[in-house]
Structure to design on (329 residues):
């Protein structure tokens, strides 16, 4: 498969540059059925949370590293998710839910536990997690921030609960493995709230890195150590590229971004949902670290990679990608 620059994606601090053809490169595997960019989820059955007519695709998210913020002292907010929810309408479209779901896949969520969570854990007791019912459907409840948790306490007046922070993927697995229909995030914070139906959660968990290593790094505050940690994770983590056939019969192309100085950066994605959320006519194709290394070695004109362009993103140059390039040795 040849690599072609079909449409330059802007980096956050630099404008677009003209598209130019890229020299042929190593093949990338065709995407398996479970890794396609299309995630067809119907949300019409959830009135009030996640229903309504289709709306325009969400605008690109601010691709900066999220700040550290505690709206309630001692509870560190999941800022990426909280800000994504803040932009949700009362009746989000399926495309908007896709965009939100990629942010749910990183960081942590707060659970509301009846009683003292620490004492219950210390005693080895099961945690009675909060749930809500919509008709005969039961949904788990989770929160993106201390403020959202407080809003629920004010709404029902039950102050005999405590907060328990858990990795988001742990919460999603709890919903999938239990007799629950989905997850409601920030239920008392309308319109900044959403339902993730069970079918979408199953799709979220069907592909991607089980440890979410790269996503977790991207959701953290940026330090000098982050680029090296991300590059190391790329040697092991599942990755995807955005593939398109702009002209029937022509070689498929892989999306790139251009920097202001003309640098070419291959777009990488940590999950197929990242590509679906771009609302482009692209397919998600898996690429291994070794294939990425071969591609970079074969084309010295590629300056590096841009990971998760919709943000939080990171751009790594060839020098920073040394652990990946070593895979081709």
């Amino acid at each position: 498969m040849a690599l072609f620059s079909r449409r330059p994606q802007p980096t956050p601090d630099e404008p677009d540059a003209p598209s130019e053809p890229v020299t042929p490169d190593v093949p990338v595997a065709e995407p398996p059925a479970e890794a396609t960019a299309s995630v067809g989820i119907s949300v019409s059955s959830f009135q009030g949370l996640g229903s309504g007519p289709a709306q325009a695709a969400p605008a690109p998210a601010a691709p900066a590293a999220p700040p550290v913020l505690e709206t309630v002292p001692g509870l560190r907010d999941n800022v990426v998710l909280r800000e994504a929810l803040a932009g949700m309408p009362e009746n989000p479209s399926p495309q908007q839910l896709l965009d939100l779901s990629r942010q749910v896949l990183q960081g942590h969520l707060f659970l509301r536990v009846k009683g003292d969570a620490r004492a219950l854990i210390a005693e080895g007791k099961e945690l009675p997690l909060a749930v809500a019912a919509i008709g005969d459907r039961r949904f788990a409840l989770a929160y993106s921030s201390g403020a959202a948790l407080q809003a629920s306490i004010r709404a029902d007046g039950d102050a005999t609960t405590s907060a328990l922070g858990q990795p988001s993927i742990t919460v999603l697995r709890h919903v999938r493995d239990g007799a629950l229909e989905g997850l409601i995030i920030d239920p008392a914070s309308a319109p900044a709230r959403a339902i993730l139906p069970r079918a979408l959660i199953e799709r979220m968990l069907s592909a991607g890195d089980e440890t979410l290593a790269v996503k977790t790094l991207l959701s953290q505050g940026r330090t000098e150590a982050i680029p090296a940690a991300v590059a190391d994770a790329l040697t092991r983590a599942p990755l995807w590229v955005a593939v398109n056939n702009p002209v029937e019969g022509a070689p498929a192309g892989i999306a790139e971004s251009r920097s202001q100085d003309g640098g070419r950066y291959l777009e990488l994605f940590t999950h197929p949902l990242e590509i679906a959320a771009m609302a482009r006519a692209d397919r998600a194709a898996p690429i291994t670290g070794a294939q990425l290394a071969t591609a970079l070695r074969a084309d010295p004109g590629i300056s590096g990679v841009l990971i998760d362009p919709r943000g939080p993103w990171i751009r790594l140059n060839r020098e920073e990608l040394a652990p990946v390039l070593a895979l081709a040795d």
